[in-house]
Design goal:
The chain is α+β, with helices and mostly antiparallel strands. It has one domain. It contains 3 helices and 4 strands. The protein is globular, with a radius of gyration of 15 Å. Helix content is 28%, strand content 24%. The two termini are 25 Å apart.
């Protein structure tokens, strides 16, 4: 199970998604720009926590997100609570096997 919350960014036409990714065992943040379908740029401006065990604590994202979003105490607490809610739900065997395959490729 994973958690995901979306927020508007400080930068117009950008949004921020934050959460806990239980299969990757990492917190994550994505900053995405709104754009037209014919715009060939990658809409993801910043992606943190896309690798297994990359972000162990949500506090590790505060500085990198600062230009886009203020990750504050109450939200940090909620992200920690999301992680704690999944403490007994580790990745499934299939998810672990998938992570093992990905790390050896």
């Amino acid at each position: 199970m994973s958690s995901r919350r979306e927020f508007p960014s400080k930068i117009p036409n950008h949004s921020v998604a934050l959460g806990w990714d239980n299969p990757l065992m990492s917190f994550f943040a994505q900053v995405e720009r709104d754009q037209d379908d014919d715009d060939e740029r990658d809409p993801i401006v910043l992606w943190l926590g896309g690798n297994p065990h990359e972000i162990a604590a949500p506090d590790q994202m505060v500085e990198r997100l600062r230009p886009y979003f203020d990750l504050t105490g109450p939200l940090l607490d909620q992200l920690r609570a999301d992680r704690f809610a999944d403490v007994d739900r580790g990745p499934t065997r299939a998810q672990r096997d998938g992570l093992d395959i990905a790390s050896t490729s």
